[in-house]
Amino acid sequence: MQGLMMDYQLTVDRILEHANRFFAHKQVITKQPDGSIHRYTYGDMYRRVKRMAKALVQLGVQPGDRIGTFSWNNYQHLELYYAIPGAGAVCHTLNIRLHPDQLAYIINHAEDKLIFVDGTLLPALERLADQLPTVEHVVVFNAPREVQSKLPGLLHYEDLVAQSDEDFTWRCTDERQASVLCYTSGTTGNPKGVLYDHRALFLHAYGECQANALGLCELDTVLPVVPQFHVMAWGLPFGCPMAGANMVMPGPHLNPAALAQLIEDERVTVAAGVPSIWNGLYQELRSKPRDISCIRALVVGGSAMPRGLIEAYERDLHVNVMHAWGMTEMSPLGTVSIPHTQHQQLSQQEIWDIKALQGYALAGVELRIVNDAGEELPWDGTTMGELQVRGPWITKGYYKVEPAPESFTADGWFRTGDVATITGDGYMCITDRTKDLIKSGGEWISSVALENKLMAHPKVVEAAVIAIPNQQWGERPLAAVVLAPNASANEEELIGYLAESFAKFELPDKIVFVAEVPKTSVGKFDKKVVRQRFAEGQLL
């Protein structure tokens, strides 16, 4: 027997229609490349999105065409999140920090028809001018009228808006229609594309607005520091208009001082970014205090925030830290770590232990851990297994790639590549990536656990642990450590510090001190490069 519910398609245009109807007065604030502040409302945005969607159709954009965006977080980029899908096309966010070869690969693999580019990034895209056979036009914004380019069919964003009008009917009528395309960061092999449909993005926005998740609401002012090219700024450009929250877009101004000033000036309540961003902001606020008492949630994802930094934020700055976890393949949010009522009697140290976990699944996401045979493992907080997920906003395949057993199980679960434990009450903890686990003498050693402990040391800012070959034990840990400014420490001191928490066999054989741990384009430690440097004899 079938239900009797209306056929209501969950398409992203409905999010914008809702924002325009009920929150037309709420603001989008952008810090422009020249440092000035641009302000307008969701009502203003709605009208400009309609004009741009119609302009795209007038340029010959067909349903399903891929349209690239190459930009910082700003109001024009936000408009494109709705105008491109609204025209029936696919918004393909391009990672501005990729190597030119990878960037060219992604554009050509997606067969982008147009690319929208921020004028400050035009030189980076111009390097590929003769490598983009499918691109018919490049549309520039935040650039002077007289700008010249070797890129094909240069147009100006504001010209398209001005020459169009608002008499436009959305061309996204099916929630299963493709909406956004994001590529993984490609730390191993070529990046892989994840093609989201409208339904996934709509339900994901519902998910992060849940009170037991980010709890976005009309009272919030949200600062997505996480780039819009990094899994759509974690879905916040859809969640915020749905909730009626103000948005603060930092543009290219991502240094700690600029972010601290934005938070104070705009009274930001929710800020989202990777640990390296929040580490820099903490150091800035300790040296030059600002009033950031407005923040109710400092959301951290991309990689685990060291427990010591969580404690420092909450103890020294009285800022609530909210750990979250997800992946490009998950749209991306999967879990958050918020202590529940059963934790109220715990000590503050035990609360911070919980906040350092990746947390419980949002309603709509299912988790399990399995062994090498694919058998489910118990949720006891100690048993480690491969983490697998499924849900309505999780991909079932990669763009133009046949589903493979190393990524997807026969019964429909996505294999994350993470190794995790899950407590009896459902709090998940990533212990490592499968490729980063260290197997020493038949025992597994967690590189993440060692890294987090090292970064809890007051003299350590960054730490990356890799496996190095060992004739007797197979593999042994090596730690690359960055010391805090003006700090002094030696290998013996840090090994002794680790020995307080780890068995002797788990301790690194060697600690090397480096100026910086290399990072991927989305701010994660790039252990591939660390391993390469060891192989080349640079970490001796």
Q: Can you walk me through this structure?
A:
The protein is α/β, with parallel strands linked by helices and 540 residues long. Among the domains are: 12-24 and 39-200, Rossmann fold (3-Layer(aba) Sandwich); 438-535, GMP Synthetase, Chain A, domain 3. The chain has 16 helices and 25 strands. The strands form 5 sheets. It has a 9-stranded mixed beta sheet with strand order 2-1-11-10-12-13-14-15-16, sandwiched between helices. A 7-stranded mixed beta sheet has the order 7-6-5-3-4-8-9, sandwiched between helices. A 4-stranded antiparallel beta sheet has the order 17-18-19-20. Strand 5, helix 5 and strand 6 (137-141) form a beta-alpha-beta unit. The longest helix is centred in the first third of the chain and has 17 residues, at 42-58.
Helix-residue proportion: 25-40%
Ranges where pLDDT stays below 50 over 5 or more residues in a row are: none
Distance between the termini: 69 Å
CATH topology description of one domain: Rossmann fold
Give the count of helical stretches.
Answer: 16
Query: How would you sum up the global shape?
Result: globular
Write a compact overview of the structure shown.
Among the domains are: 175 residues, 3-Layer(aba) Sandwich (Rossmann fold); 98 residues, 2-Layer Sandwich (GMP Synthetase, Chain A, domain 3). The protein has 16 helices and 25 strands. It is an alpha/beta fold and 540 residues long.
